[in-house]
């Protein structure tokens, strides 16, 4: 054991511990599933996104109060960066879109809606790349790198394949990635429950209150 | 190490309440999170309830931490967080310790 106090490592350890419950994967899988349905014309992403934004805190806290905190203890991470994260996400998405447009122009010598649709899987993969790299910087969890490789790799594959309709590639890509995240989330949740049994309330807590 | 007299005041002003190893680790753990409960801190620090409680009381008396006690699903929960004073004191302690030694 190191005799030094490494605050960055401590922060990463706390972040990783809190995110071992599989919830992040399940939420990403759910979002991607709805995005996939939207590409298939079967649902609209906007109402889901609105519901997601409104209820995400309650969903996350409800899940963690029931499954996570009883096993690892209650832990709230600093969220002072919320505004900066929002700006960062939109800036990154804008930069990725611009880079993709330039990339398409360099490869094909023209820009068209059809070509843009074809490369949507890679665009989504690169957006995930940004999010997952942020996740990795916060947690040091190498699983984020695996997810990054899968998201970008599948994005590239589905962009290179030719499909009869313009959004089928994007639909299959988001559906595949959704399946990956949901399976990973379920497996991680099961492992979390096995690794961290529910802990008894420490003796003396109620008496001392 | 230099025995420069201008370093002596820094050494004298080290916060002895924070300097105790368990309290130092407790504050360090709270420094990187917004708040945490007894179970999390006991696991991270390998402490018993009594030991953690004793250190918690000293830090609370000094105004370095805030302790919130509530019931969640009929179970008692004790949540700890650093106060602004505690955060400043910990940052100050880090700064002093960092500048105390030279290679």
Report on this structure.
Chain A is mostly helical and 209 residues long. Chain A has 9 helices and 1 strand, in the order αααβαααααα. Chain A is elongated. Chain B has 103 residues and is of the alpha+beta class. Chain B has one domain: Arc Repressor Mutant, subunit A (Orthogonal Bundle), CATH 1.10.10. Chain B has a 3-stranded antiparallel β-sheet with strand order 1-3-2. Classes of the chains: A mainly alpha (209), B alpha+beta (103). Chain A binds chain B through residues 5, 7, 10-11, 14, 65, 69, 72-79, 199, 201-206, 208-209, and chain B through 24-25, 28-29, 31-43, 49-50, 53, 69, 72-73, 75-79. Strand 1 (75-76) of chain A pairs antiparallel with strand 1 of chain B.
Q: What is the radius of gyration of chain B?
A: 16 Å
Q: Per the principal axes of the C-alpha atoms, what is the gross shape of chain B?
A: elongated
> Which structural class matches the secondary elements of chain A?
mainly alpha
Write the CATH architecture name of chain B. Answer: Orthogonal Bundle
Oligomer: heterodimer
Features:
heterodimer; A: 209 residues; mainly alpha; 9 helices; 77% helix; 1% strand; elongated; B: 103 residues; alpha+beta; Arc Repressor Mutant, subunit A; three-stranded antiparallel sheet
Structure in a nutshell:
Chain A contains 9 helices and 1 strand.
Set down the secondary structure blueprint:
The complex is a heterodimer of chains A (209) and B (103).
Chain A: H1 7-18, H2 23-39, H3 45-72, E1 75-76, H4 82-108, H5 113-118, H6 120-139, H7 143-160, H8 168-195, H9 205-208
Chain B: H1 8-12, H2 16-19, H3 21-31, E1 35-37, H4 38-45, H5 49-61, E2 65-72, E3 75-82, H6 84-100
Antiparallel strand pairs in B: 1-3, 2-3
């Amino acid at each position: 054991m190191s005799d030094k106090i490494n605050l960055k490592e401590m922060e990463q350890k706390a972040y990783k511990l809190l995110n071992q419950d599989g919830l992040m994967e399940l939420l990403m899988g759910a979002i991607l599933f709805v995005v996939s349905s939207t590409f298939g014309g079967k649902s609209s992403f906007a109402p889901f996104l609105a519901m997601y934004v409104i209820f995400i805190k309650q969903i996350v806290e409800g899940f963690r109060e029931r499954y996570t905190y009883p096993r690892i203890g209650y832990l709230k991470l600093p969220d002072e960066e919320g505004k900066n994260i929002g700006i960062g996400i939109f800036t990154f998405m804008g930069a990725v879109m611009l880079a993709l447009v330039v990339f398409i122009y360099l490869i094909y010598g023209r820009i068209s809606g059809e070509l843009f649709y074809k490369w949507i899987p890679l665009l989504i993969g690169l957006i995930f790349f940004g999010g997952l790299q942020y996740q990795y910087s916060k947690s040091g969890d190498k699983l984020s790198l695996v997810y990054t490789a899968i998201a970008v790799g599948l994005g590239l594959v589905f962009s290179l394949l030719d499909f009869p309709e313009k959004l089928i590639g994007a639909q299959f890509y988001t559906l595949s990635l959704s399946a990956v995240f949901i399976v990973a989330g379920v497996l991680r949740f099961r492992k979390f429950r096995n690794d961290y049994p529910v802990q008894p309330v420490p003796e003396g807590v109620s008496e001392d209150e | 190490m230099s025995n420069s007299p201008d370093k002596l005041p820094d050494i004298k002003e080290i916060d002895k309440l924070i300097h105790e190893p368990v309290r130092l680790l407790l504050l360090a753990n709270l420094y990187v999170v917004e708040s945490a409960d007894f179970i999390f801190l006991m696991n991270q620090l390998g402490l018993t309830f009594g030991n953690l409680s004793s250190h918690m009381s000293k830090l609370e008396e000094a105004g370095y931490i805030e302790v919130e006690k509530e019931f969640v699903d009929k179970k008692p929960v004790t949540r700890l967080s650093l106060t602004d004073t505690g955060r400043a004191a910990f940052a100050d302690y880090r700064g002093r310790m960092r500048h105390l030694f030279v290679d």
